[in-house]
Predict the structure.
Amino acid sequence: MSAQIIDGKKISDEIREEIRRETAALKERGVQPGLAVVLVGEDPASQVYVRNKAKACEDLGFYSEVHRLPAETSQSELLGMIDRLNRQGNINGILVQLPLPKHIEEKAVIDAISVEKDVDGFHPVSVGNLMIGDDSLLPCTPAGVIELLKRTGQSPSGKHAVVIGRSNIVGKPVSMLLLRENATVTMTHSRTPDLPKVARQADILVVAVGVAKLVKRDWVKPGAVVIDVGMNRLPDGKLCGDVDFGDAAEAAGWITPVPGGVGPMTITMLMSNTLKAAKRANGIDR
Ligand SMILES: Nc1nc2c(c(=O)[nH]1)N[C@@H](CN(C=O)c1ccc(C(=O)N[C@@H](CCC(=O)O)C(=O)O)cc1)CN2
C-alpha cells in the first residue's frame, strides 16, 4: 500500500478539543449549547448513533435531551414535539434521527424544524443557503469531508473533484461545498457512462453510493485523494466502505478507511453546528 491514511478519528478528536475549549469560554458568558435528539422506533444502529450523540454532548459540556418515541408514534405527535422544541429556549439544535418509520413523511418532519435550529442542515432553506453560498448550518457528513481535506492539507482549490453519488444528504451537498472551495466538480451516478474512466480523472474522489467495495485501484488516478463516505454491513457483520480499501490504496496518495474515516466526523460536525447555533441565538459571532 502506498497511500497515506486520513485518520478521521484523530481529526475528529482535534476538532472536539477546539469545541470543548470554546464551549467552556461560552459557559463563562452564561451560554450553554443545547441539543435535542429525537429517535422514533428501535432501529439498533440509530440507537447507537443517538447514544453517541448524547455522550458527545456530555463530553463537550453541552446540555442535551434525548426523546425516545415508540415506533407507532404518529406524524402529528412527532410534529407536536418538534413545535415544542422549536420554542424551547435552552435548545439550540434539533436533530430527528433518520430513517423514520415508513408511516412518517420525512420531508414534513424536516420542514417543521426551525431553520435556526436545523443542525442537520437538511431543511430546504438551509439547502438553499448552501446553494447560494450564504452562511447557514451545513449538513454534517459533507462538512466533515471538507474538514478532512483541509486538515490534511489537501485543499480542494484548483483541483478536479469527482463525486460518485447524488443523494440529497451527501452527493449533492458535498458537490456544492467542493465548488465553494474552488474545486472543479463532476457529479456522477449510476447512469454515468464509463464511471471508472471519469473517476480516474479525479484529483479528489468522493464516493457515496452505498455499493460495497465498488471503487477499485483502476478507478483511481495515481496520487489522488480518495474519500469514502460509504458504510456497508457485510454478511460477516463487518463494516466496509464503497471503496475497496486495500486495492484502491495501491494507487491513491491519501485515503479514508471505513470505519475510522468520514464516520467519526459526522457527530463532531453536529456538535460544531450546535455550538454555532448557540452562538447565533445569543448574538455571538464566530
Ligand atoms: N438525522 C440524521 N440521521 C442520520 C444521519 C445524520 O447525519 N443525521 N447520518 C447517519 C447516521 N449517523 C448519524 O446520525 C452516523 C453514522 C455513522 C457514524 C460513525 O461514526 N461511523 C463509524 C462506524 C460506526 C460503527 O462501527 O457502526 C465509522 O464510520 O467509523 C456516526 C454517525 C444516518 N442517519
Summary: The pocket of LMY7XDAE is lined by residues 49, 95-98, 120, 140-141, 231, 239, 258-260, 263-264, 266-267 (CB under 6 Å). The chain has a mean pLDDT of 97.
